[in-house]
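re: that chain from earlier
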Amino acid sequence: MAISKSALVPLTSVRFLAALRVALYHFVSWGDKGYWWRGLLGTPISVTYFFVSSGFLLAYNYSERSDLGQMDTPRFLLGRVARLLPVYFLGLLVAVPLLLQRPAEFSLGKATLTVLLLQSWFPSSALYWNGPAWALSDLAFFYLSLPVLLKLTRSASRRTCLLAAGAAWVVSVGLAVAYIHVNPDGLAQMNPPRSPGFWLYVLKYNPLVRLPEFIMGIMAGRLFLLNGGFRRQISTSVFVVSSLVLLVFLILGHHISYPVINSGLLAPLLAVVISSLASGGMAADFFKQRWFVALGQSSFCLYMLHLPIWELCYRESVRYWNIGVLVFIILVSLALYEWVEKPATTLLRNLLLPAAKPAALAADSG
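^ sequence. v structure.
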C-alpha cells in the first residue's frame, strides 16, 4: 500500500510530547503531588512510545525492501549512525561539566561504555554521564536487530502479526510480574522509580528486556501495511478513544506497580494511537501543523540535552526561574535542531553514504 511521507509527519509531532514528558518526569519530585497529576505526567511510558514508534516507522520503510531481498544492511546502519550520533555526542559534551563536578565518581570504564553506546547492557553504567542516553544505547541494539527481525517476519500474515505482538507483550509484562514475585533486590515496596536495585535496572534499561516493545512496533507497522491502516472516516475516532483509554491508564498509573507500568504494558495502546495517526484524519491534520512539527523535529535534542542543562541551571525553590529554564531548554532544542543536528546529520550522510541524496529529517527517520 502506498502512503505519502506526509502521513507519517504526525508521529514526529507526538515525539515532542513524549520528550517533554520525559523532561517533566526528571524535573519534578512527584512524591508530594496528587495521584492524578503524578500519573498524568510521571507515569513512565514516553520511552515506550519512542521504541514502539521506531519499530513501526522502520517496519513501514524497510519491510518491502527486506521482503524482496533488497535491503542494504550496511547502508541502513550507516544511516542510523548519521541520524543518532551528532546529537548523542552533543548531549555528552554538554554533560561534561557535571562529570567534572564529581571527579570521585569518574569511571573510565563507564565512560568508554557510554561512548560506545553500550552502557545500558550494564546496570551500574546505564545512567552514567547523561542519564537519558540509555535509550539510545537500546535503540542502537534494536537497529542492529532490525534486519534479522524483518527477515523473521517476512511472510507474516495479519494473524501472525497479532500473535507475535501479543507474545512480545506477554514477555514484556511477564518479566515485570516475575520481578515483583521474586523481588530479587529485596525492595520493601514496589513503586520505587528511582531505586538503584541491580535487577530493577536490568528490567528498566537492558536492551534485551526492552526489545519486545520494539518488536510490537514492528508488528504494528507490518499489520498497518497489510491492512492499509484505519479508514480515514474512523481514524480520528480510533485516535480519540485509544487516547482516552491511555489517559485513564496514565492518571491511574501511580496505582499500578512500577515495574509493570514501566514495561510494555501500554505498548499495544500506543501502537493503536500511532496507526490511527498514520491513517490520516482530523487528529492527524492537527499534528501536522508546522509549529507542532518543528517541536517534534527538535525532540531528539530536547531528550538528550534536557537533563544536563537542567542540572546546570536549576535553582532550588526559585519556581519561576525553573519554569524559565524549561522554556529555555525547548528554545535551545529548536535552535540546535536547525543549526547543529540537521546540518551535522546531512554532512555525515554525505560522508558515509556519498551515493545517496541527503535525506530530510522527517517522521520516517525512526
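Residues 25 and 42 are 5 Å apart (CA to CA).
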